[in-house]
Amino acid sequence: MKNAVAICCGGGPAPGMNTVVGSVAKIFLKNGWRVIGLHGGYSGLFTQETKMVDIDFLYADDIFNRGGSALKMSRFKPKDSDFDNNFNLDLFKDNNVKLLVTVGGDDTASTANRIAKFIKAKGYELKNIHVPKTIDNDLPLPDNTPTFGYQSALEAGVAIGNTVYEDARTSENWFVVSAMGRSAGHLAAGIGGASHFPMIVIPEMFNKTEITIDKIVNLVVSSMVKRKILGIDYGAAVVSEGVFHELSDEEIRNSGITFSYDDHGHPELGKVSKAHIFNEMIELKLKKLGIGIKSRPVEVGYEVRCVRPIGYDLVYCSLLGMGVFELYQNGDSGCMVYVNHAGKAQPLFLEDIQDADGKIPPRLVDIEGHGATTLIKNNLHFIEPADYDAARKFVQNPEELDFYKILEWQK
Fold first, then answer.
1. How many Cα atoms within 13 Å fall on the side-chain side of residue 341?
2. pTM across the whole model
3. Which CATH number fits domain 4-148+309-353: 3.30.950.10, 3.90.550.10, 3.40.50.450, 3.90.640.10?
4. Are the C-beta atoms of 349 and 131 separated by less than 8 Å?
5. CA 383, 386, 389 angle in degrees (round to 5)?
6. DSSP state, 237?
7. Is residue 347 packed enough to be buried (19+ CB in 10 Å), middle (13-18) or exposed (0-12)?
8. Which residues pair with 250 in a beta bridge?
9. Among residues 243, 179, 255, which one has the least CA distance to residue 406?
10. Secondary-structure breakdown of the chain: helix, strand, coil percentages, each rounded to the nearest 5
11. How many CB atoms neighbour CB 39 within 10 A?
12. Could you say which DSSP state residue 402 is in?
């Protein structure tokens, strides 16, 4: 029986999923392996009715440049009881699976290690290699290398951001955009920076103070008032959804928003429109201040997860897929594949990047770095002390809209 590699995709989709799967399949097929695609993420391993597909060259060649994921995905995270009662070990034994390739985020990687250790304890040797993906760009890859999917999602997000900003200019309105980013603000910062939005709000900006709803709202209103002073009657602000994750329980309760939670304990922000919520809060503040500005909400999230990968990710994901085979040949396991700027695949072992609790700390936007500080200083519009007198034409207390005071930053 041929050696087999099984491929499993967990979490949510990102541009380049199919490129990775297709590239892994092609290189292993070329070297005489059988390639098995598993549907349903990890849920497919904890049932006796696993849905799987034998991937041949024509299948791999058909999907590699498509958006979405041909292998159906899920956020299923197995409990200890699932391992004891439901794990389908025969799937691996009967199909001579020697390598499990997982594609996903940090939770998917950690679960892959649990599976490999569980199978080894049962007397069956299985190697596992993980391909890290997330449009959030928040996995700490060396040399600030992006996670696959981020560049394509950013490209699609910027297209939306530019169109929104053009509409703002044309209609002389404001737009409040919410962008995906559970732990870090890379996507929101990228969209706002590329589209020249006058306000960007991401979790990393609150490095000196606690995030509150009032502060989020005041940052956006600060930009609106500054543009009024400048005689500019339009604009757009982008707010990262990640600010919700940093709000205290009391702030969330006071917001009136009720969240449900996914299998990993994260608020299911996809079930609520963050843009709508932010926009409503901002409009209430504007009404309270007596400022006549109209704003519209725009959500940027699911719209960018399944777009076709751009050239960057097509090349990058191909190298990642082929890198899986290189790492396997070298005997590596329990690691993520990482491709450096020279295109060389290297192992990145989870134990080297996990914290004491076994979690991978997110890579945040370097808010004090030169790029971020340059954009903030020169691209954003906000109230500062020199604007107080002019701002009093629109608000009684411009100090509460002072950008640096809100964030407790030193100018």
1. 4
2. 0.91
3. 3.40.50.450
4. no
5. 85
6. E
7. buried
8. none
9. 243
10. 45, 15, 35
11. 18
12. B
The Cα–Cα gap between 154 and 148 comes to 11
pLDDT digits (tens, 9 = 90+) for 53-109: 999 999 999 999 999 999 999 988 888 898 888 999 999 999 999 999 999 877 777
| Among candidate residues 53, 69, 76, the one with its CA nearest the CA of residue 13 | 69
- The answer to whether residues 115 and 100 touch, using CB atoms and an 8 Å cutoff, is yes
Catalytic residue among 106, 136, 313, 402: 136
Q: Indicate where the chain has its CATH 3.40.50.450 domain(s).
A: 4-148+309-353
Least confident segment among 7-21, 94-108, 177-191: 94-108
Q: Is 106 a catalytic residue?
A: no
165, with CB counted inside 10 A (0-12, 13-18, 19+), is buried
Q: Is the pLDDT of residue 12 over 60?
A: yes
| Token couple for 171 | 């209609």
HSE-up of residue 171 (Cα within 13 Å, Cβ side): 15
The residues near 177 (Cβ < 8 Å, ≥ 6 apart) are: 160, 161, 164, 191, 192, 197, 236, 237, 238, 239, 275, 297, 298, 299, 300
Q: Is 251 exposed, middle or buried, given 0-12, 13-18 or 19+ CB atoms closer than 10 A?
A: middle
- The highest-level CATH class for domain 154-305+381-407 is alpha beta
